[in-house]
Amino acid sequence: MDSSGKLEYLMIAGAAVIWGTVGVFLRWVDVPGQEYFVVFMRGIISLSLLTVIIFMAGTRDKLHLGKHPVLLLFSGALLTFHWVMLMRAMNMLTIGDAVFITYLSPVLVAALAPLLLKEKLEGATVLALLLALAGMYLISMTGQTAAEGLNGTGILYALAAAASYALLLIILKVLREDTPTLTITFYQEAMLTILLLPFCAFRDFGVSPKGWASLLVLGAVHTTLAALIFIYAVKRVKAQHVGIIAYLEPLSAVVFGLIFLGEQPGWQDLVGGLLIIAAGAVVLRRGLVEAGVEEPSHTV
């Protein structure tokens, strides 16, 4: 990887931080129990914007499915499944528990990448995984009491979300070898829209003007812009590293929740957040070393 590779690491981190604001906008949409409608509208808005981009730029060739049409369409179905499972988990578990279990996905990526992508499992990756998992565990403990239990079905939903996200990262690495970013994003959103249409068509979800504005931001910024950035950059970043950098999403979610929703973090959030930052720093530094930007030390 040449010295320009550092940009892709920063792009992955930026997309993760953008996605960290999803919870704030979801709260402003205010349709509890009907989150699948939010996912559907994100897909509709994103698909519309991508269509405009493709035709305005004169890149209709991006509508070709490419060399892996089945895998491409499957990635769209998998993305839909991931979001639905994650939303279901958040409805049945505390948010902390659901996110913690779902963010076990980098562990699965780290285990699968050496097998499927022939990547070498690095010591720095293992250290970062341990730090990130410890941090996520502390964050998940916030607000827990002895009377609160875990819902078995909710755990299964969260594990399904984790497994689907891990598999999606692996598939993206394969697709990005010869499939353009716009093509991947367009067909993923198209599949998502088609699959959720039967559940959302001809229904009134009672969304307020503020809610519609929030949906527009979720579709344009979180689903379109962040996805394009992420999918473009993932080609140049190791799958193991992508999984760890993604931990910036829950960390930033805590910060944005404090700023915009007044959610006061406990000591577990603060300590856990520091551990997650440390994990991201380990991976980012390793990526910069490989990019030739920084000389490796003897201790890493």
Keywords:
single chain; 300 residues; mainly alpha; 74% helix; 0% strand; globular
Description:
This protein is an all-alpha fold. It has one domain. The protein has 13 helices and no strands. Helix 2 runs antiparallel to helix 10, helix 6 packs antiparallel against helix 11 and helix 7 runs antiparallel to helix 13.
* String of helices and strands: HHHHHHHHHHHHH
| Outline | globular
User: Beta-strand percentage?
Assistant: under 5%
Instruction: Give the total of domains.
Output: 1
Figure out the total of helices: 13
What structural class should be given to the helix and strand makeup?
mainly alpha
Short synopsis of the structure:
This protein is mostly helical. It has 13 helices and no strands.
Question: Would you spell out the secondary-structure blueprint of this structure?
Answer:
Layout: H1 5-19, H2 22-29, H3 35-56, H4 69-92, H5 95-102, H6 105-116, H7 123-140, H8 152-175, H9 181-200, H10 209-234, H11 239-245, H12 248-261, H13 267-290
Helix pairs in contact: 1-10, 1-12, 2-10, 3-9, 3-10, 4-5, 4-8, 4-9, 5-7, 5-8, 6-8, 6-11, 7-13, 9-10
